[in-house]
Amino acid sequence: MNWMTSRKLIAGLAVATALSTAAFALPAQAATLNMAWSQDATGLDPHKQTAFSSLRLLELIYEPLVRLDADLNVVPAIAASWEFAPDAKTLTFKLDPKAKFTNGAAVTPADVKASFDRLMDEATGAAARANFLTIASIDTPDAETVVFNLSTPDVPLLVAMATVNAAIVPASEIEAGNVGNTAVGSGPFILESWEPNSKEVLKTNTEWAGGAIAIEGINISVLPDETAILASLRAGQTDFALLNDPLVATLVPNEQNLTLNRVTGLAYNVLQLNPSRAPMDNLLVRQAMSCAINRQEIVDAALAGEGAVTGPLTMPAFAQEPSTLLCYNQDIATAKSLMEQSGVEPFSVKVIAATGEPPTAASQAQVLQAQLAEIGVTLEIEMMELNVYVDTWLKGDFDMAVAQNGGRPDPYPMYNRYFTNEGNLQKVSNFLDEKSDTLLKQGQWETDPAARKEVFQEWERHMAEQAPWLWLSTGYSYTASQKNVVGFESSPTGTLFGLTTVSIQ
Amino acid sequence: MNYVVQRLITFPLILLGVSILVFVAIRMVPGDAITAMLGTEAGLLTPDQRAALANYFGIDQPVWSQYLRWIGGVFQGDLGISTIYGKPVMTVILERFPLTLQLALMSMVIAMSIGIPLGVLAATRNERPSDLGIRMLAMLGQSTPSFVVGVLIIFVLSVFFGFVPAMGTFTPLLQDPLASIGQLIFPAITLGFAFAASVTRIARSSMLDVLSDDYIRTARSKGASPRSVVWRHALPNALIPVVTLAGVEFGYLLGGAVIVEQIFALPGVGRLTLDAITQRDYALVQGSVLFIAFNFLVVNLLVDLAYVALDPRIRIGNR
After folding, report:
1. Is the pLDDT higher at A12 or at A53?
2. What is the pLDDT of residue B315?
3. pLDDT of res. A9
């Protein structure tokens, strides 16, 4: 290339840069928050969508009867107050008279009943229905009251209602068959437009019963590559972003204009064993594996230190120190001796993991592979595309699985599906155990908080001893924002509801 | 003309083959729209709930009956409804296609305007330092994956210049040409980089071949200036392999440069197809693959026609 050509090239690039800068360096609108995330919602029906990415959007548009605050306490949403009958078989709500749908209509007990009827209808295909099976009937005695009559005592029901999967939608929209095509909720924001996998425009709901909001709206861009999200934060194009990849998140504090919000999540990383298959059907082998792994090392090496070791219970109100659980401190000598006692020869098993979900799945599998090799357990790692993985996982068709499972603020709805005898994901855990079943059900009926805590902690110790799964760690949920975006409150559930208190300085 | 008609007649047959392949292939991938939407929570559905959802997504029928229903629609110009977008597949594709077309064209312009002069330059300075330099540059361009170039560009722009092109959206060219070109220039450079490298290499070797031909020697002996020999006599013939390469590359680009669209968060056909696959939006996967295949056929036909324009000795119509 001669000198003239290269000079022209550089000049050309400079012009292109100037063109783009001129076109895009316009100041952001004062009070609209520009937000980015890597995964978009997959639909608008709050009763059908369960993907993390969908819930994050729908929580801004719809409201359930109650919600959880940042400390996971149940607080009012559409309902202003509630009360369990002493036998925990009736749950009565008083609705907030100010609550209004964005179509202008007030939220009435009839809407609540219609929403739950829809949710409970099998034709709806709502996965969350499984959490509401104790609801026998719903009464609406007056214009403010809704009474749920339960077939058995069910204390965790209230927490189960604190999710957008139990959102209240207008009875008229249900009747018209519009739920999922349009988004009429009573939440803090109104969905103005949605281009799937590209962008959403949200406008603030000025009539929202929850109070005034300092921003005018939110423009959400879907930037599938998280390094691109970081770049757009650096360039000031994005004000606020949701991050999943710990490696990207750790780069945020290096930028002087950016703040990283980090909160320990309820979701947990786990090595699921399949106790229905040999040699994982041998309790001593499972315990040996639990003793052989160094959970902190997995956090340090695979999660870049971004996480904390956990036992089965991840919610602060119930969790106990993991080091007090059997084999949750690495002990190779004990592990080797347990292997010897089991009489099982060194063996090789396949472990499945999903590509990129969580982003650290492959590295976790590799560290586990190295650690378990020390006691003669050879892991063959099989990486799968997420949908293929989910399919295999749901069939329980694996020796072992590196999984990241979602958490719940209450242990019962979090684990009853896997570890009670009738649990509908029992096929995934492949673990039938009378003691686990009894303890979890006791936790469902028990109304005294202190006694509930003791029940679930006993269950946790039992599960660590039985080791059907080897719980590893919880990760963090991250959001990053410009320094001038203030007032966001993170929550362990990962919700972005904290955007309602945000202002741009 | 006869040839063009013959080719056009084969289009529907090829597309029919593609339609069967894609229909079967996407259904052989485990997981369906229900697991794609609900993830692990799909395990919580009762059989009745699952049946209701299968009916909603239209996957409750046997595969052959789904195919017949779909292909019947295709013949009437209806590619089905996308479950992600809740809109006709054709509408969704046509919304996304202008971006991909513009990106492909811009990459091609970049590749040609850099690759052809560099290739010619290298060929005329065969084995001299400038030739070696260009060849090394071309090798580098070909062996660097586009995601590396893309991420590097984004990193350099954001860290050193504090700016990135607007991502996540697309401004149509007619609406605001400057903004539109500004938005796509860096993705186009990313794609054009590897493309230009291939063009350089092909242009160089084909130019070297042509320069050793008898008619070039004749032209030189007749006293034609070196510039005229290279650009007027040799280049048109040397361009034939370049056109072939450009046609194939352009066809690929029209299929959506998936990785670059992903990195720069551009809502083009490539990302559309990828999202459709991961979310098991069957109608959209089928529709976009058919659309991409159709583009390929059209581009290939145009390439063949371009041969004739470049080299009058080729008479495809008489085959």
Report:
1. A53
2. 65
3. 44
- Closest CB to A51 among B37, B151, B164: B37
Q: Give the SS3 label for residue B36.
A: helix
Other CB atoms closer than 10 Å to residue A270's CB: what's the count? 19
Q: Tell which A residues from 317 to 376 touch B, by Cβ distance under 8 Å.
A: none
Please judge whether A25 and B163 are an interchain contact, meaning their C-beta atoms are less than 8 angstroms apart: yes
Q: What is the pLDDT of residue A19?
A: 44
In angstroms, the CA B82 to CA B260 distance is: 24
Structural contact between residues B246 and B201, judged by C-beta atoms closer than 8 angstroms: no
Structure tokens of B43? 């395990």
Instruction: Tell if the CB–CB gap between A390 and B40 is shorter than 8 Å.
Output: yes
For B286, the 3-state DSSP assignment is helix
CB atoms within 10 A of CB B193: 21
Chain A with chain B: Cβ pairs closer than 8 A: 192
What six digits make up the tokens of A38?
């890597």
> Which residues in chain A have Cβ-Cβ distances shorter than 8 Å to B181?
16, 19
Amino acid at site A291: C
Question: Does A125 contact chain B (CB < 8 Å)?
Answer: yes
State residue A334's pLDDT score: 95
The stretch A90-117 carries a mean pLDDT of 96
Tell me the one-letter amino acid at B112: M
Which residue is closest to B119 within chain A, CA to CA?
A1
Contact B155, B148 (CB under 8 A): no
Q: Where are the domains of chain B?
A: 2-75, 96-318
Whole-prediction pTM = 0.85
- The helix/strand/coil state of A472 is strand
The per-residue pLDDT of chain B, averaged, comes to 88
A133 touches B at CB < 8 Å:
no
Question: Chain A contact for B216, CB < 8 A?
Answer: no
Give the 3-state DSSP-derived string for A216-278, with helices as H, strands as E and coil as C. CEEEEEECCCHHHHHHHHHCCCCCEEEECCHHHHCCHHHCCCEEEEEEEEEEEEEEEECCCCC
pLDDT band at B317 (very low <50, low <70, confident <90, very high): low
pLDDT digits (tens, 9 = 90+) for A18-67: 444 444 444 444 489 999 999 899 889 999 988 888 999 999 999 999 99
What residues of chain A lie within 8 A of the CB of B60, using their CB? none
Q: What CATH topology corresponds to B96-318? A: MetI-like fold (1.10.3720)
Q: Does pLDDT of A382 surpass 90?
A: yes
Angle at A348 between CA A346 and CA A349, to 5 degrees: 135
Interatomic CA distance for residues A299 and A248, integer angstroms: 16
Q: Do A49 and B37 touch (CB under 8 A)?
A: yes
CA-to-CA distance for B72 and B68, rounded, in angstroms? 6
Place of tokens 């090798």: B139
The answer to whether residue A390 scores a pLDDT higher than 60 is yes
Interatomic CA distance for residues A281 and A433, integer angstroms: 13
Instruction: Please give the backbone phi and psi of residue A308, each rounded to the nearest 5 degrees, phi first.
Output: -140, 145
Kindly report which listed range (A177-186, A463-472, B57-66, B100-109) carries the lowest average pLDDT score.
Answer: B57-66
**A392 and chain B in contact, CB less than 8 A:** yes
